[in-house]
Amino acid sequence: MEHVKLLLIIITILSNAHTLKASELLVHEYYKEKCPLAEDIVRHNVEVAVFKDPRLAASLLRLHFHDCFVMGCDASVLLDSVEGMTSEKQAGPNLNSLRGFEVIDKIKYLLEEECPLTVSCADILTMAARDAVESRGGPRWDVLLGRKDSLESSFSGANLFIPAPNSSLESLINNFKQQGLNIEDLVVLSGSHTIGRARCVSFKQRIYETKQEYYNGYDRYKRYTNFRRILRSICPVTGRDNKFAPLDFQTPKRFDNHYFINILEGKGLLGSDNVLISQDFDGTIRDQVWGYATNEKIFFASFAKSMIKMGNINVLTGDEGEIRRNCRFVNP
């Protein structure tokens, strides 16, 4: 049964006609009349949560990304396992990794108190990701709203469609293309790695295997060598796989353009960060990275545009899906 669902997901992703029609039904200020305080409630609670734990900014942004890349932006990632359905939370890329569910639960509870069965969990994820970015100094953008929540999750889809931290550039490009996103979207959305952390198990390969793709083949001033020494002190050859390191060592809690400076120097934490430069043989991506590294305003504007685009992937609208009462479970 799971294989059948996975085949249907692939067919849906490859067919953009449905996606475009659904996304056209999303609008700004969707809840202006239905639930006027919706965006304020989301924003306030995200700000409070991130103030208490700055790491949650990256966690909420990542939740939205991992949701959209599996069946579309439909809050399927929030569903818990029930008989006959394994949660996406149990998939390899998500297990013991995704965070922020309690923040979404609290927001949903407050919205149900204010406007019962009105604001979808999918829209909450979208708004929370935007507000999380802004809370760390990043851009703010107007989100399109009106999504419905899915009635199922896809454990297999989560294992298949979420990019691995050691992906090649070709693999990343193909992965994003399946979602209707292009190379420009891939590069700018990778900039979300300006905040957050990763476990040693995600990047050990890139610090113990001396490959050109990890430092762009250029290390005259030993910058990569020194950086690798720091990473090795955090993550020894054996053990401490669950130890964390910041994705951006320079400004780990601030959403800025420093990620792009890092990868130009071969100092992206993940292998999938550095391949944007090392495997860009025609220099197209390097030009884009240079543009973001030297002009934060351009990065912010491009990031907002691509986030809106990603938020439109295979959305459910109209009579599709439902508005869940509890984001963890389909309505009875």
CATH class descriptor name of the largest domain: Mainly Alpha
**In what range is the share of β-strand residues?**
under 5%
- Helix and strand pattern: HHHHHHHHHEHHHEHHHH
Helix content: 40-55%
Query: What spatial order of strands do you see in the largest sheet?
Result: 1-2
Our count of helices gives 16
Mean pLDDT: 90
Number of domains: 2
**Which CATH architecture of the largest domain would you pick?**
Orthogonal Bundle
Q: What structural category do the secondary elements indicate?
A: mainly alpha
Uncertain ranges: 14-20, 217-221
The largest sheet, given as strand count, sense and whether it forms a barrel, is:
2 strands, antiparallel
Catalytic activity: 2 a phenolic donor + H2O2 = 2 a phenolic radical donor + 2 H2O
Protein name: Peroxidase
Binding site for substrate: 163
Binding site for heme b: 193
